[in-house]
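Hi V.,

Quick status before I head out on leave. The structure for the redesign project is tokenized and pasted below; the design run finished overnight.
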């Protein structure tokens, strides 16, 4: 009996010390600005069905256009043509690689997208730093960002995951808006205390018309989608 009691106490103690599992969704309420970002991984989309997530209207969409100096998303042109008919603001994004020069990556991006089809400033997906040292990396990334800004007249938004931001981007890109990926119920924790513009809180969202799970984003309180809209 004594051993059983000790075992019970031990189990209760371990339970109290264990962190609760993170939710894969956010407790949204009316008024939140919800968006999605997609690539060819989402498969064949029936855009006539795409309108809400969790009963919240989808108010913006980012679509992958390119990656590095040569890759072009095979679904991009189909997606953007069909999505434009739904009157949801659309932006395009480029996955920035450290295996090719920034000007070559910019040229690849501009070959694929049509400026006249863009409602939102472009987004730059930044998640790897493999082939350059830190100095070269930031020099080249900033050149790519500047090329995009010069072309569109507004600074692009930057996407990255929370840990990558804190390790590599903190205190270096104060003039840019960030969409931060951090899955679960805990909002982004920026080491430099910068306010995130938008938060990608789930990679497993279910949206009618999209056969595979989709990333779900929400704008921070007090920010407006208008700030990243193109004229």
């Amino acid at each position: 009996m004594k051993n059983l009691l000790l075992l019970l106490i031990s189990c209760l103690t371990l339970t109290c010390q264990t962190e609760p599992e993170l939710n894969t969704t956010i407790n949204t309420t009316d008024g939140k600005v919800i968006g999605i970002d997609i690539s060819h991984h989402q498969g064949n989309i029936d855009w006539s069905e795409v309108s809400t997530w969790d009963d919240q209207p989808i108010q913006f969409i980012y679509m992958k256009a390119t990656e590095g100096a040569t890759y072009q998303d095979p679904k991009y042109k189909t997606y953007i043509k069909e999505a434009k008919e739904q009157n949801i603001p659309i932006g395009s994004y480029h996955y920035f690689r450290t295996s090719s020069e920034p000007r070559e990556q910019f040229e690849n991006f501009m070959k694929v997208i049509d400026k006249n089809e863009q409602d939102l400033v472009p987004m730059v997906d930044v998640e790897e730093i493999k082939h350059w040292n830190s100095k070269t990396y930031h020099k080249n990334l900033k050149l790519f960002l500047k090329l995009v800004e010069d072309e569109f007249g507004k600074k692009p938004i930057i996407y990255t995951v929370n840990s990558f931001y804190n390790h590599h981007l903190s205190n270096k890109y104060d003039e840019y808006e960030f969409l931060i990926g951090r899955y679960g119920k805990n909002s982004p924790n920026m080491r430099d205390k910068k306010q995130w513009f938008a938060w990608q809180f789930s990679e497993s969202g279910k949206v009618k018309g999209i056969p595979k799970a989709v990333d779900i984003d929400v704008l921070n309180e007090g920010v407006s989608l208008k700030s990243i809209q193109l004229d």
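Above is the designed sequence. Residues 134-152 form the longest helix (19 residues).

G. will cover questions while I'm gone.

Best,
W.
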